[in-house]
Amino acid sequence: MSDLPRAQDLGLIGCHVCRMVCRDIGAPDAACPRCGSPLHKRKSASYTRTWALLIAAFMFYLPANILPIMRTVSLGDVDDNTILSGIIELWVKGSPDLAVIVFTASIVVPMLKFIALGLLLISSQRHSQWAQRQRSKLYRLVEFIGYWSMLDVFVVALLTALVQFGFFSQVAPLPGVVFFGLTVVITMLASMTFDPRLIWDGRDFDD
Amino acid sequence: MTMPSQGIKPAIAPPTLWICEHCDTVYRRRKLARGEVARCQRCDAILARHHSLTVRGMLALTITAMIAFVQANIWPIVTLGLNGQMISTTLWGCLVMMWREQAQVVAVIAALTLFFFPIIKMGALFWVLAYARNGRRAPGFRWVMVMLYRVGPWTMSEVFVLGALVAIVKAHMYFEVQPNPGIFAYGVLMLIITAFSSIDIRRLWDLTEERMA
Questions:
Q1: Rounded to whole angstroms, what are the CA distances from B54 to A136, B130, B140?
Q2: Minimal Cα distance from A38: which residue of B?
Q3: How many angstroms separate the CA atoms of A81 and B129, rounded?
């Protein structure tokens, strides 16, 4: 596989915004001649930024799961739901299949993002050659599924707008949902700042 | 900083290389057969797809999406009933409620990802495609294309559709639920988004010609 030439070795840079192939002139402020976007061999400070965003996201993720995301009031009965208790309720009273979807979107996907990005960061920083192809695929999976976690946030928004029957029944959002929404946004930013080309960069890479 | 094997500033440079965005491997471009997908040998990422949809086709899809989006936003999505009292809502109803109920951050995130970014995306697509039909670059093409690339990952209408479905099932445990036209319009929008997901709009850079002023 080492016979496949890489742009870095040929002195080329591919513009991410328009896919133009440009010659690397080595200037730090080089811009793509076609679309004017800055050209970098690799996303700048990818490791530092991704780590920072990932840690920030995790700090929001804890209250997102511990704090309740939604309050249901019916006939004076107050019931606060966390993400997990909402899923359990859906499993028990509603439809188990939908509970699986929500469980995947709200619990599995964020956890997978933390584990996967952490794994990608550590292995790439150690210039590991282990399972590079699979790690590339893992990165693309994280990028693809990332935004589906917003599902629960939209569910709370819809129920809040719909269930407004005064004394009989009422739904209101609680702080957990804000933390959760921010977690999703920050993890999306984290996966965007990670540069998957780092997976393939060996020890001799000079960036 | 010119294309490899190219002279100075060609009006329309025949792009000769692909660089895999996920691992930096360089390939010589080739014509793809119908339905063919070129994949990177090193990391298996998609390099390019055969474009079965023409620029006109994409324009038609964009216009359809715009119509569906307007319908999805003006009609209520669902109606709940309890003791004869009926409540229905639209997307903006949700946003306003979230704002009032101390979840302003969520209201802003949802307004951007479900309303403003989709509108910007569809408007920008319409603009560049309408000109690209004749192989031309729209005024501000460069700027609009860069913006499309940046906004791209931040539209979440399809997630909202699934969210509406979950909300309906949850509400169904306690209330009467009636689907309204909005949810169907959202369904159509979701189909169009799925159809569009395999299209790399960046190919317009190669398909259109820069006008020499």
A1: 31, 12, 22
A2: B146
A3: 46
User: Residues of B109-131 as b/e, b for ≥16 C-beta within 10 angstroms?
Assistant: bbbbbbbebbebbbebbbbbbeb
**DSSP secondary structure string, A5-63?**
-BHHHHTEEE-TTT--EEE----TT-B-TTT--B--SS-TTHHHHHHHHHHHHHHHHHH
Q: Nearest by CB to B159, which of A154, A161, A197?
A: A154
- Inter-axis angle of helices A151-162 and A96-103, nearest 10: 120
Nearest beta carbon to residue B98 from set A74, A157, A200:
A157
- Identify whether the C-beta of residue A37 lies closer than 8 Å to the C-beta of residue A173: no
Q: Which residue has the higher pLDDT, B211 or A167?
A: A167
Q: φ, ψ for residue B177 (rounded to 5)?
A: -125, 130
Global ipTM: 0.89
Q: What does the pLDDT look like over A49-90, one tens digit per residue?
A: 999 999 999 999 999 999 999 999 988 889 999 999 989 988
Looking at beta carbons, which residues of chain A come within 8 Å of B24?
6-8, 14, 197, 200
Measured between beta carbons, the chain B residues lying within 8 angstroms of A151 are: 159, 162-163, 166
Tokens representing A191 are 């996966």
Give the DSSP letter of residue A146: G
Residue of B nearest to A198 (CA): B23
Residues in A touching B118 (Cβ below 8 Å)? none
Dihedral sign, Cα of residue A164, residue A167, residue A169, residue A172:
positive
